[in-house]
Write a structure and sequence with these properties.
A hairpin with a 4-residue loop joins strand 3 and strand 4. Helix content is 2%, strand content 53%. Strands 1, 2, 6, 7, 8 and 9 form a six-stranded antiparallel sheet that branches. It has a six-stranded antiparallel sheet with strand order 3-4-5-12-11-10. Strands 13-14 form a two-stranded antiparallel ribbon. It is an all-beta fold and 176 residues long. The protein folds into two domains: 142 residues, no CATH class; 27 residues, no CATH class.
Length: 176
Amino acid sequence: MERLECGYTGRNKDVIRMTADLGIGWRNLGRAWGFDETTSLGYDQGGSDSRFRCRVRLVEKAPPSYESRKDFPERYLDEPLDSGRSSLMLHGTKMDIDVPLSQEWAVTKDSNHRPVIYELRENAFSIDFSEGSINYRVQVWVTHHGPPHMFVRDAFEHGDGFAWVGGRPESNRRKF
C-alpha cells in the first residue's frame, strides 16, 4: 500500500475515500510529528483531462518531551468521527476519510481560483499514553484541477453595489 491512496465510493462515485497508512508515513514534520501526503485521482469529465488533488495532514499536539508522539500507535474507533462534511475512521495504523463531493466548494486563493474542499479539525481525536493524552489535528484538501470554465466567478459592477452571480448574463456562462 502507498502512504496515501484515493478512490471513489458511493453509488454514483460521489464520495472520495482517502486511505492514509500512518504506520509508514509518520515522520518528523519540523515542529511536530505527523503525516502529510498528497496524491492525485483521475476524473473523467467529458473527455477533458481533469483530476482531483487529494491531501491529508495529521499532526500530533503534544509537548516535545513526550517520546510517544514519535510513533503513531494502533488505534481503532468504534464509530466514524463525523463533522457533517466528511467522516474519519481509524483501523489500526490506517485512517480512512470519506469526503462527499456534494458539499459546498470554495475557491483557492491562488491565481488559478481552483475549486477546493477544505476541512480542519483542531482536536479530531485523542489517544492516552503513559506520559499523558495526545490530541491530533486533521486537515483535508480536495482540489479540482481541470478546465477553467467549470466554475464562473461572480462579476462585480462597480458603483452599482451588487454582483452578477455566476458571471454576467450576456457571457452565456451562468451556472444553473
